[in-house]
């Protein structure tokens, strides 16, 4: 049962990163606008982040989809989510009126159109999925499981042949 829960967590988090990364990659100009709207990075670094972030998200999503290096990827995902939550929180605290750009779009919005609490709660929920996978990375239909069986590291108990004597 816990393996099934982990599988849902892994695939759900994979979907988040794949959709988020694909939407940002599809509109790099808007992604740059969203990154600059946070007003925390110099322009040169904002350009790098706007290019790298969608690629990082896609890589995280692909690794999670495949179930490869699940614990490490969940850790990286958690770190990224904490950074994103901190970015949203600092924007809220500073009184900026922006859309987070978490799933494409982003940038300045009219006062009163921000959704900071919802964005923080949503990303915190995604972070909980990452925490689950950090604590329990074993999932169904994963390359991690397939590779572990190939190395003889399966969690399956070995058959007990101790009661079988020669000729009995």
**Chain oligomer state:** single chain
Tally of helical segments: 6
Strand order of the largest sheet: 1-2
Biggest sheet features:
2 strands, antiparallel
Low-pLDDT segments, ≥5 res: 156-161
Strand percent estimate: under 5%
Radius of gyration: 21 Å
> Could you report the average pLDDT, rounded to the nearest whole number?
91
Can you tell me the number of structural domains? 1
- N-to-C CA distance: 38 Å
Task: Please report the total strand number as a whole number.
Answer: 2
Succession of helices and strands: HHHHEEHH
The class by helix and strand makeup works out as mainly alpha
- What percentage of residues falls in helices of 4 or more residues? 55-70%
Spatial shape: elongated
Quickly describe the structure.
With 168 residues, the protein is mainly α. 66% of the residues lie in helices and 2% in strands. Mean pLDDT is 91; it is low at 156-161.
Record keyword descriptors for this entry.
single chain, 168 residues, mainly alpha, transmembrane, membrane, Methylamine utilisation protein MauE, Methylamine_util_MauE
Describe the structure.
Pfam families: MauE. The chain crosses the membrane at residues 45-65, 72-93. This is Methylamine utilisation protein MauE. It is found in: Membrane. Keywords: Membrane, Transmembrane, Transmembrane helix. The protein is an all-alpha fold and 168 residues long. The protein has one domain. It is 66% helix and 2% strand. The chain has six helices and two strands; from the N terminus they run H-H-H-H-E-E-H-H. The chain has a two-stranded antiparallel sheet. Helix 2 crosses helix 3 and helix 3 runs antiparallel to helix 4 (70-93). The longest helix is centred in the N-terminal third of the chain and has 25 residues, at 2-26. It is elongated.
């Amino acid at each position: 049962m816990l393996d099934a829960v982990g599988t849902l967590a892994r695939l759900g988090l994979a979907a988040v990163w794949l959709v988020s990364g694909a939407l940002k990659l599809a509109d790099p100009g808007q992604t740059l606008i969203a990154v600059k709207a946070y007003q925390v990075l110099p322009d040169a670094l904002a350009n790098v982040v706007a290019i790298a972030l969608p690629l990082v998200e896609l890589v995280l999503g692909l690794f999670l989809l495949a179930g490869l290096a699940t614990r490490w990827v969940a850790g990286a995902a958690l770190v990224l989510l904490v950074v994103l939550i901190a970015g949203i929180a600092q924007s809220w605290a500073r009184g900026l009126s922006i859309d987070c750009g978490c799933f494409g779009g982003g940038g300045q919005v009219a006062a009163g159109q921000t959704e900071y609490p919802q964005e923080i709660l949503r990303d915190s929920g995604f972070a909980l999925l990452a925490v689950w996978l950090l604590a329990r990375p074993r999932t169904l239909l994963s390359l991690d499981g397939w590779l572990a069986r190939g190395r003889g590291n399966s969690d399956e108990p070995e058959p007990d042949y101790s009661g079988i004597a020669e000729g009995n």
